[in-house]
Write a structure and sequence with these properties.
This protein is mainly alpha-helical and about 200 residues long. It is built from 12 helices and no strands.
Length: about 200
């Protein structure tokens, strides 16, 4: 809402809903960002619809060939945050398993997104680190610690852009000394060794 017009909300609230709906449809047809926001608005309260909107948005981002320059990166970072908001607010409580799957897909999108964004300011990386934190919250109680530890390790092992390592910081309880030793023996520890330092392993 514009600070220069504090009555805008009140005046819009008096407009016929059908007119506002037509305006949103027209704007969404012209702007992908508005379309995404409308989809999330319509999906509110419906976990299946939220998941569909999240996946649709991720697919659109992956397919887009457009490079996002520094001046546009902040706005795109806000788009990432809005998507994470929809997962946190709409799925984390009612369906943490679905939230976990979507957050994993979000983290795996880094190889498409970060290749075409000038993230000199770090706002895109910040969104991915937030996704790591949400992943850990969704993971609690969803599956066995062993299965989750392997899932996290596979994500971190392919952390080519340095935005997934926060999973280790936010998920220390999944890392017993026995599991860590297993990854060392398997050779997976080459990418994890420097990142697990300082993480307190829970008792085996």
């Amino acid at each position: 809402m514009s600070n220069s017009d504090p009555t805008l909300f009140e005046r819009l609230a008096k407009v016929e809903p059908a007119k506002l709906a037509r305006l949103l449809v027209e704007l969404a047809a012209q702007d992908q960002t508005i379309l995404e926001q409308v989809q999330f608005l319509l999906a509110s309260g419906d976990t299946t619809a939220i998941a569909k909107a999240v996946r649709s948005t991720l697919r659109a981002w992956k397919r887009s060939p457009r490079f996002i320059h520094y001046q546009e990166a902040f706005a795109f970072g806000e788009q990432l945050d809005r998507l994470l908001d929809s997962v946190e607010d709409g799925l984390l409580g009612p369906d943490p398993a679905l939230a976990l799957d979507l957050l994993e897909e979000f983290l795996q999108s880094d190889r498409w997104i970060l290749e075409r964004v000038d993230d000199s300011a770090g706002c895109i990386g910040t969104a991915y680190r937030r996704a790591c934190q949400l992943f850990a919250r969704a993971a609690a109680g969803v599956a066995s610690p062993a299965a989750l530890a392997e899932r996290i390790a596979l994500l971190v092992e392919k952390d080519d852009y340095g935005v997934r390592h926060s999973l280790l910081e936010h998920s220390p309880n999944f890392w017993t000394m026995k599991r860590l030793h297993g990854w060392w023996i398997a050779g997976e520890s080459k990418r994890l060794k420097g990142r697990v330092r300082g993480v307190t392993a829970c008792p085996c």
